[in-house]
Amino acid sequence: MSSRTTGSVTVTLDGTNRSASLPLLSGSLGPSVVDIRKLYNELGIFTYDPGYGATASCESRITYIDGDAGVLLYRGYPIEQLAEQSDFIEVAYLLMYGELPTKAQLAEFERGVTLHTMVHEQIRRFYDGFRRDAHPMAVMCGVVGAMSAFYHDSLDINDPEQRRIAAFRLVAKVPTIAAWAYKYALGQPFMYPRNDLKYAENFLYMLNAVPAEEYRVNPVLARAMDRILVLHADHEQNASTSTVRLAGSTGANPYACIAAGIAALWGPAHGGANEAVLKMLSEIGHPKNIPAFIEKVKDRNSNVKLMGFGHRVYKNFDPRAKIMQRTCHEVLAELGIKDEPLLDLAMELERIALSDDYFISRKLYPNVDFYSGIILKAMGIPTSMFTVIFAVARTVGWVSQWKEMIEDPSQRIGRPRQVYSGPTQRDYVPLGNRG
Ligand code: CMC
Hints:
Number of strands: 6
Largest sheet: 3 strands, antiparallel
Helix content: 40-55%
Order of helices and strands: EEEHEEEHHHHHHHHHHHHHHHHH
Radius of gyration: 24 Å
Mean pLDDT: 94
Distance between the termini: 59 Å
Bound molecules: carboxymethyl coenzyme *A
Number of helices: 18
C-alpha cells in the first residue's frame, strides 16, 4: 500500500508523564489519519468511535468521497463523467482493475462476464424452498450465500485465479439471481440470460420478458438502468462494504462475504432507503400533507426520518442524486408520463426541506435514493426490488474491495475492541440461594 508518514501526533495521558508519539499517515486525497496501532501497547488505552465516524478501517485505492465538496471519484474519475460517458461494464473493469480498459481488454472482460451469467441449474430448485411472498432481499441473501455450495472450485481465497473466477461469477450471476427472485414472487417462468445483450439490457430482459412472446428492451430504459448501476457501483467503506471486508478478513469465502454485504445493505438506513422513500411518499400522499410530515420529522420524539435525505459523509448535495434527478426526468419523458404525482411530491418535499433551517443547519441534502425509487417505479419495477437492484450494482464494488483487502499484506482479521460497562467480576449464586 502507498500511504506515507507525513508527521506525528503525540497523545499524553493527563495527570501522568506518559505519552505516545503516533505516526500521521497521508494518502493521495482527504484528511490524514493517526496510526493508533501502538497506542494500547504504549499507553494501555483504546480509542472509542461508535459508528466509525472518525476511523479509517483500511487503506484503499478504489473510491474517494469528499463529502463537503460533493465529490465522488471511482479510481480518480468523477462520477459525473463516468455516468455520462461510460457504462457499467467499463466501470466494473475500472473498479476491479484500477484503470480504464483498452478496447481489447474491455471486449475480453465483457465476454468473460457474459460467459458466467448462467447459474448452476440446481440453483433453480433452491428457489422453491422460499415462500412466494418472501422479500426478494431475503432470497438474495440465501441464494448468493448458497453459491458457496455450488462453486467449490473458486473458494480458495489464497489462489489468485480462484479469486478472479469468483469475482467474475459474482458480478455476472447476481443479475440472474435477482431477476429470478422477482420472477419467483410473480409466479412466472425464470428467464435465462441472453449473451447478445449488454449487462443492463440483459438484466431488464430477465426481469420483464416472458417465454410466450418476444420482448425488446427499451434503449432509454436500458441506459437508465445502466446509469443506476454505475451510480451505485461503489461508495468506499459504507456499512455493507465494511461488512464484506469484516467477513472477508476471517478468510470466509467470497460468496459468503457478499451475502453478508447484501444483508447489511437491506437496512432502511442504507440500501433499503430507496424502498423506504417510496413508502414515505405514498404515506404523505399529497403536497398539502408535507408541512405536517416535516413537523413530525423535526420532532425528536417521533423517530420519523425524511428518507432519502442525509448521509454520513456527504454534507453537501450527493452528486449521485443530481444525476438521478436528471435521469428521472428523462425516463418519465421517454415513457410519456407527463404527470407523476410521486415525482411532484418528491420535488415539493425537497424544495420545502431545503429551505427549512432544521435540514440546512444539519447539512441534510437528498441522497442517491431520493429519486432512484421514482425512476424504478416508472420502469414498472416493484418497490420490493429496489434494494435488490442496489445490491446488483454494488456487487462489483464489494468484490473489488474484498479482492483489495485479501491482496493487502497488512490485512488482519477485523476485531474491534469495546468499552465494557457491564458488571465487574462476581461469584455465581446457586439457584436455591437467590432471593
Ligand atoms: N431526516 C431527519 N433528520 C435527519 C436525517 C433524516 N433523513 N438524517 C439525519 N438527521 C438528523 C439526525 O437526527 C441528527 O440530528 P441531531 O443532531 O439533532 O440529533 C443529525 O441529522 C445528524 O444525523 P446523524 O444521525 O448523526 O447522521 P448519520 O451520519 O449517523 O446518519 C444516515 C446518516 C444516512 C443514516 C441518516 O442521514 C439517515 O438515516 N437518512 C435517512 C435514510 C437514508 O436516506 N439512507 C440512505 C443513505 S444513501 C445510500 C446508502 O449509502 O445506502
